[in-house]
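Annual report, structural modelling task.

Input specification for the KG4 complex:
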Amino acid sequence: MVVHLNWLIREAREVDLAEIMKLEHACFGSDSWSENNMRAELVEHHTYYLVAEIDGQLVGYAGLSKLPSSEQSDIQTIAVAASQRGTGLGRELMHRLIARAKELGSKEMFLEVRADNPIAQKLYRKLGFVQISLRKNYYQPDGVDALIMRLDLERFEVPGIGQKQPIVLGIESSCDETGVGIVRGATLLANVISSSMDEHARFGGVVPEIAARAHLEALKPTLREALSQAGLSIDDVDAIAVTNGPGLGGALMVGVGAAKALAVATGKPIYAVNHLVGHVGVDVLERGVVETPTIALLVSGGHTSLLLVRDLLDDVELLGETIDDAAGEAFDKVARVLGLKYPGGPEIDRAAEGGDPKAIRFPRGLSLPKDMEKHRYDFSFSGLKTAVARHVELAESRGEAFSRADVAASFREAVVDVLVTKAVNACKDHGVPRLLLGGGVVANRRLREFAQEQCDKHGIELRIPALSLCTDNGAMIAALGAQLIMAGREPSSLDFSAVSTLPVTQVQSL
Ligand code: KG4
Ligand code: ZN
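The model returned the following structure:
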């Protein structure tokens, strides 16, 4: 059984206070800080607090204090929910605080730890802290001693830590989501999305012209909201990143135009990045790095791509993609056939409940032995869609009732079967023990379940980022931009354009 870590670490905000207090009480009982103390800590200028979430649920936090006049910093507190102990979350939070302390110019770091907490002491020692003194009877009322520990930050080196973490604003407009995200290095500061999905509903699919116009209207307010969520002004941003493809031409042009205008107006560098690689790079926001090599399966309303990522910035290979409809599009079209609303994915998930996935054996596209030679990693869903339509039409023409639940469940099974089987094949063929999922279709329950089952069976580690990071968003674009900057890449010139068919090998357009 592989352990799956899905935390998202981001900077704490005052609105997190209630959840932080709940965890504070669960972790520290009668030793807990008061809510007022905690609020003061969160809003102080010389403190820096992080929270970790899993699916929106707070599972950890940690804070640092560093006075501008001093070269030392102090770990104020760190708490990890019982369910997450032993997962490495404490270590990850500490790493991030240490990185931030170094960036703020600290030369040494201090902390206090209870003498009766050997697990925490072990973590700190592993990070390089050494005990410098003991305070007797420090923790009241039980009179437990405190160990005072110190870390020499000038000698502390972990790859990537201590490096300047650039603040990057990312703009995404390749399909129907206008996304603006802000990161500092690999830490999420804001992720705001405005979707024009409702406007496409009556057409049963994304209408490019409507999407482009909606981006135009949504960009300014989305940008403003993202800056306010991060508590920053545009001057605080170090660089701008933007999706320049692949995607809908007109939609891409709106984001690219806005990003260029912003870069010219502010004099900030701009990075034009690949949307698909952004879906993979988003994992840095949860893990700090994208572990490679990894196979990535990206499934949304616009794409179905299977990638082999040997290196996020330098070596991304397209193994296969859909030769007709995208997986999400297939859900949307079949939903229509079944008289369900747009977007079809969640509707079909619901309709499939209680249905028999084996009731109808719908075709698995490009999975016959002859297809597996030429199209081993490619997908095709249009035959499946037609088969569902035929099945329904035939039943109706005969005046027979058909079970919508069975049709939905059998259709979903066919899609999921092909997606997961091909992705797992790619892992096995290339000896890659990791699979990362991305795109809106990842919300599908059966897909998550079957992927987990198959990955467990074949010893593959499955990574599914939080759903808000799986669907199209600006944070993934900002995160990829930040990775490029930290790797020392030059910014793009202002001459790059929106390319609707941008190949996945082109991570950055210069
Ligand atoms: O990544 P995404 O939000 O954006 C675009 O493609 O623009 O993906 C949206 C797609 C839609 O086609 C929708 O039907 C599909 O993801 N989707 C799902 C589910 N939720 C959303 N497909 C299958 N099962 C779901 N639960
Ligand atoms: Zn996408």
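The two ends are 43 Å apart (CA to CA).
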